[in-house]
Backbone:
C-alpha cells in the first residue's frame, strides 16, 4: 500500500527484452552458418528504485536507448518488469505513442468520446468538455474527419487535448510534444506549466532540455539502465551535458 503522498513507486525493477537471431532460410545458409535458434536478452533497466510524490513534475533524461521510455511504459503498465514492482496511486493518463488508443476509422470527435470513456468519463461529462477539447486542439472542421487522415501533428493535438481533459491525477509524456508546429508545442508547454502548478503529477521525457528546466524542478538521469543522478533539474541537466552533451 502506497503512502498517500506518493504517486508512483518503483521498487527493485529490472526489465529485459528478448533479442532473436536471424534463422538461416536456405540450405546453403544452414550448411555455412549452422542452425542455431538462439535467444539473447538485452538488459534495459537494472534494479531501479525511485519514488515520485503527488504534485511533482519530473523530467526523465538520457541518451536514446538508455531506458527512460521503457520506464514510462512500465509506469503505465503497458509492459511489466521481469523483476520488481511498479505501483501508482491515482488516475493515470499517458501520451506515449501517437494515435495509441485512437480508432483510425473514427472521426476526431468520435475518438474524443471513445478515449474519454476509457478513462471513466460518462457521456454527460464528455458532452460538457467536448467543445473545450476541440477548441484547444485547433483542428476546426477536421474534427469530423477520420483520424487516419490526420498528420502526426494533428494526432498530437487531439491526443494532448483529450489527455488534459480526462481529470487524470498522473500524466506521463514521451517525446510526443516534439511533433507538430512551434505554436502548438509552445501552447502545450504553457498548459503543462499550468498543470504543474496544480496537484497533477507529471513525468515527461524530452530532449528539449531548456524546456524541461523551465517546467520541472526534479530530473532523473537514466544511464545504461541505471539511475545516474536524481535531483534538482538544472543541476542534473548540467551534469548530463558534461557527460553526454
Residues:
Amino acid at each position: 500500500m502506497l503512502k498517500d503522498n506518493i504517486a508512483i513507486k518503483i521498487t527493485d525493477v529490472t526489465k529485459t527484452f528478448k533479442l532473436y537471431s536471424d534463422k538461416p532460410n536456405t540450405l546453403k545458409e544452414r550448411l555455412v552458418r549452422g542452425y542455431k535458434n538462439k535467444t539473447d536478452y538485452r538488459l534495459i533497466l537494472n534494479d531501479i528504485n525511485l519514488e515520485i510524490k503527488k504534485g511533482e513534475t519530473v523530467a526523465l533524461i538520457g541518451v536514446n536507448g538508455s531506458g527512460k521510455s521503457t520506464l514510462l511504459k512500465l509506469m503505465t503498465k503497458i509492459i511489466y518488469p521481469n523483476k520488481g514492482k511498479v505501483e501508482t496511486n491515482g488516475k493515470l493518463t499517458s501520451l506515449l505513442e501517437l494515435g495509441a488508443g485512437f480508432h483510425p476509422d473514427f472521426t476526431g470527435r468520435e475518438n474524443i468520446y471513445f478515449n474519454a470513456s476509457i478513462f471513466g468519463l460518462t457521456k454527460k461529462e464528455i458532452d460538457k468538455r467536448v467543445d473545450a477539447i476541440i477548441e484547444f486542439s485547433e483542428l476546426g472542421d477536421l474534427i469530423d474527419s477520420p483520424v487516419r487522415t490526420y498528420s502526426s501533428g494533428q494526432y498530437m493535438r487531439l491526443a494532448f487535448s483529450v489527455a488534459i481533459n480526462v481529470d487524470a491525477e498522473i500524466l506521463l509524456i514521451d517525446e510526443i510534444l516534439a511533433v507538430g508546429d512551434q505554436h502548438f508545442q509552445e501552447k502545450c508547454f504553457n498548459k503543462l506549466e499550468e498543470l504543474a502548478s496544480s496537484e497533477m503529477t507529471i513525468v515527461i521525457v524530452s530532449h528539449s532540455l531548456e524546456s524541461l528546466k523551465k517546467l520541472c524542478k526534479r530530473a532523473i538521469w537514466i544511464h545504461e539502465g541505471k539511475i545516474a543522478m536524481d535531483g534538482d533539474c538544472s543541476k542534473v541537466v548540467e551534469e548530463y551535458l558534461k557527460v553526454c552533451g
Q: What stands out?
A: The CA atoms of residues 182 and 188 lie 10 Å apart. Helices lie at 27-33, 68-76, 108-118, 123-137, 152-163, 182-196, 209-215, 233-244. DSSP finds eight helices and nine strands in the chain.
